[in-house]
What does this fold into?
Amino acid sequence: MKEIDARGLSCPAPVLQTKAVVEQEKADAVRVVVDTAASQQNVKRFLESQGFETALEKQGGDYVVVGNCTASPQKKEPPKPQSEGNIDLKKIMVMCATDRIGFGDDELGLKLMVNFIRTLKEMGPELWRLVFVNNGVKLTIDGSEVLADLKGFEETGLCILVCGTCLDHFNLLERKQVGETTNMLDIVTAMQLADKVISI
Amino acid sequence: MIVGLERADDAGVYRISEDLALIQTVDFFTPIVDDPYWFGQIAAANALSDIYAMGGEPKTAMNLVGFPIKQMDLSILRQILAGGLDKMKEAGVALVGGHSIEDGELKYGLSVTGFVHPKRVLTKRGMKPGDRLVLTKPLGTGVINTALKGGLASADVIDKVIRLMATLNRDAATVMARFPIHACTDVTGFGLLGHLAEMVVGTGYGVVLRTADIPILPEAIEYAGYGLLPAGAFKNREFRTALVECTPGIDPLIQDLLFDPQTSGGLLICIGEENADRLLEGLVKKNATESKIIGEVVAEPKEKIVLK
It folds into this structure.
């Protein structure tokens, strides 16, 4: 039985200390002493998530969790600082500074842009940020041909950023229907974090 | 004086004339995220929220700063203030001044002044049986912030939660202003059930919540299962547990998450049944964060919150 004294520590420290002992020392029986009912509950939950059977005790003014590992197959992986599934995924940022592609025929340009936005989903989960600036913000307002597509992207968790200064300039702040209003610092930070920035 | 100290509400309201009242509020806290610019945005969004919860429009604000100048580089403070200012600009609020002191622990927030029509003031009082309750942001930021503190939150989740906390309640408030609202507050440190309790106590009515309809960040449920609930959630539960009746079969984890203290949480709106669906439709269309109808006001059981 491994004793852990986590008194005087506040959440989440008692859980972290227990986690370290369970993982590094491969302890299969622990007795954790804490000084609040909150920490007791949290340690109990952590141990149970790791396949331990737990019992709660009082010890003077302190709270105790006794845990015994029953090698349950239900043991869950504790959360990792990096989501491992995504570690190889590139972060692609697409910045649209216009509502049509290329110069020449505007009608064609608009059609191409609609097609472009719809085809973007082929990038899959690597599509990380979609940013609209200048005339591009017009794609995010009511009546936009790609509004439903953009809303669909947003539902799948894609972060869509729309330039607030641009919306304000065109007097469209009230008409934006999708995405988050953003600012230049946020856009620049996103560029820095992205693996690839595609500018249209 | 329309709203003062006699009953705790989100902000004080003082009538200036027949058609104008002043709303005043102040809020500041210690950093919850590592990035100073985002911390500034979140602290400002959080402080501005009380004005929106009272049905008002924020107009001016002053910075409140405690900064450990001997231990920290001044550029950090500059980034915090830039974040706060950007949020104020987004809200259409003028920064008119502020005050800073040297402090061992970094603190930032705002004192905010707003306007409201005296007849459009929204308080926590006014729920009626049959009313629906609408929540405009998902719960779970307290758990995720605890995971973040413990170095256990994934980068994607941190990013998502930071954006959620920095999102103004303005869009939700704009939609809300088009409807007759019976009561409103914002969900912050006492958690959903703590703030709902403040709306319920003294009314003679009760509330039934459908837990399956309450928006909760999925990662918060996951992390809470690893024992990452903040101590505040337990304190909130201890304080209000007598008021809450839980139907058997509801996961205790979900109950605890309903007490999770929120930073810059959503609005909790109480509206007549006849308008509830249209309000929700407006919110879903206009508001960037997740909105849901989560329950209703009932005549019985009196002054209880029933979880179903």
